[in-house]
Amino acid sequence: MKKYFAALGLGLSIVAMAVDATAATRSRTFNTRVRIVKSCRISATPVNFGNLSTVLGTETATSTVSVICNVGTTYRLSFTAAAGTLTKTSNLVNGANTIRANFSLGTAAAAAGTGSGTKSIMVGLAAKPFPVPGLYQVTQTVYIVY
């Protein structure tokens, strides 16, 4: 009986191999694609003039703008959504009190680039002798056009 089952198992193995050896196959090719589009991201550091008792008009500070764009992507920074606005005047506000601030991206060449890097925004305060004490602030927006 053992020999019969062993022979039967061997026979089934041979039949199974014979079925696999004659199995039909077909293939089909397919394309895989991805389109990479231009993309840029920016971030800017805050500007802090520290503690002052008066504003002489000679105070300056800098914000560093970090730019990350796809390789080869050209860009321009601007203070408006349309490229080209390189300067802007805004008021830092403390209730009803203000201190004027002048923001500058420098020249058109300084505000432009390709790929990734850093740029500077220079900020200067207009003279305001002995302003009302308190925290003066404004939120400024810088745009990247690419």
Instruction: Estimate nothing, just give the exact number of structural domains.
Output: 1
Please bin the fraction of helical residues. 10-25%
Alpha plus pi helix count = 1
Q: Which CATH class applies here?
A: Mainly Beta
The secondary structure category is mainly beta
The largest pleated sheet is described as:
5 strands, antiparallel
Give the ordered list of helices and strands: HEEEEEEEE
Q: Give the total of beta strands.
A: 8
How would you state the average pLDDT, rounded? 90
Give the neighbour order of strands across the main sheet: 1-2-7-5-4
Q: Using the coordinates shown, work out and report the CATH topology.
A: Immunoglobulin-like
Query: What is the terminal-to-terminal distance?
Result: 83 Å
Radius of gyration: 34 Å
CATH architecture: Sandwich
Describe the protein.
The protein has 146 residues and is mainly beta. It has a single domain, classed as Immunoglobulin-like, CATH 2.60.40. 14% of the residues lie in helices and 35% in strands. 13% of the residues are buried.
In summary, what is this structure?
Helix content is 14%, strand content 35%.
Features:
single chain, 146 residues, mainly beta, Immunoglobulin-like, five-stranded antiparallel beta sheet, three-stranded antiparallel beta sheet, 8 strands, elongated
List the helices and strands and how they pair.
Layout lengths: L1 H20 L18 E5 L15 E10 L4 E5 L8 E8 L2 E8 L7 E3 L2 E9 L17 E3 L1
Antiparallel strand pairs: 1-2, 2-7, 3-6, 3-8, 4-5, 5-7
